[in-house]
Amino acid sequence: MHKNKYLLILLAILAIAFAISCAKTGRDFEVFVDAGGKIINGQNIYKPPFAQNLQYYYSPLFALLLSPLAGLPIVLSQAFWGILSCFLLYRIWILSTEYFDLPQLSSKQRVWWIAVSLVLTARFIRYDMTAVQMTIFLLWATLQSLKWFWNDKPLAGAALLAFAINIKLLPLPFVFYLLYRKKIKGAMLTCLCYVLYLYLPVLYLGWDSNNFLLAEWFTLINPLQKNWTIEAESGPSSLVAMIPVYLTDTVGVLPVKRNFINLSYNIVFIIVNAVRLIFVILTLVFLRSKPFTSTHSKLSQYWEMSYLFIAIPLLFPHQQRYAFIYAAPALIYLAWYFVFNWQAIKQKMNLFTWTGLFIVGINFTPLIGRDIVTSYVYELMLHFRVLTFAAIALIVALWLCRPEKTLNKVQSPTV
């Protein structure tokens, strides 16, 4: 018990040191705080100039909430957010473990589960933390709100989920998931809270100014814009960033040809959205039950939620590498699955499956870094959207590791 206490203290100290280090070099949170300073001065937060020359994409409410930080040294604001993100990572782990039957794991298995989960998520934790971004908060808010929904606290769940959606639209698919899982009251309350958050800034900005900013924001994030159909730069890793660069001639950071065919914009637009529709339909495959029904177990619920978390950064445009911290639930589930079933799995493994597992798995580890694979190889991986392919392969792995393969051994309590 004392050893665990000291270990947690040590980890907390290391986390705080890491957060402070990121605060000195990160830059994205400065964009958010800068928008807060602009909004209280009556400026258009969606037009230049921007801090760090980076576009502000989030809501007027989020900018208004951050406005008190505008007068502080940015390193203090970023350090605060980094420390909070570290705490939220701890909460993400605690919320996730509640879906698993922990007594069925030995002490050794628990250590391996934690270690493998940490290795597989560390790359994306680092991306989010070093950029001082919002995705860790969004992941926590989604998991926490879902817990409240399952525990019959729909108002609390709706308030938190709607707030997360107001900041960034990534958690939006979980509103439809709530409907599918018969949490109709929760879904409706989430929609009402979302509308409330849109117009809450009226109290400070006035009706006309708020409506103007909302119109500017909706125009900016409109997914039908051409710049959300073909993303040729090296940062984004969604389907919108992957598919077009192989189907039409684009200019990337590296002078290396990617496309094997040169289709028109209209055809590429159709193909991209057709593939995205396939991933939406795949949601029904993972849900594997009629609408308005509950899942058989907590484990099954976490498994199907894991698919949604992977699909979201693939479906939404302009998703940077840090957005793939949303894959954390899938990685936690798969780490548990392999640890729990290791004796049976290792007997079925061969050179082919080991190789495939290594190729996919390495993309979710810190081994993919400029200082390890070299800057040029790293840029090549971004250029050819290797992370996107790895995320798709992760979906395949998730399907192959379905929960019923373990539920015949361990029956998790129903939700």
Automatic annotation (TrEMBL):
It is found in: Cell membrane. Belongs to the glycosyltransferase 87 family. InterPro entries: GT87. This is DUF2029 domain-containing protein. GO terms for cellular component: plasma membrane. The chain crosses the membrane at residues 57-90, 111-143, 155-180, 187-207, 263-287, 299-316, 322-339, 351-368, 380-401. GO terms for molecular function: hexosyltransferase activity. It is a multi-pass membrane protein. Keywords: Cell membrane, Membrane, Transferase, Transmembrane, Transmembrane helix.
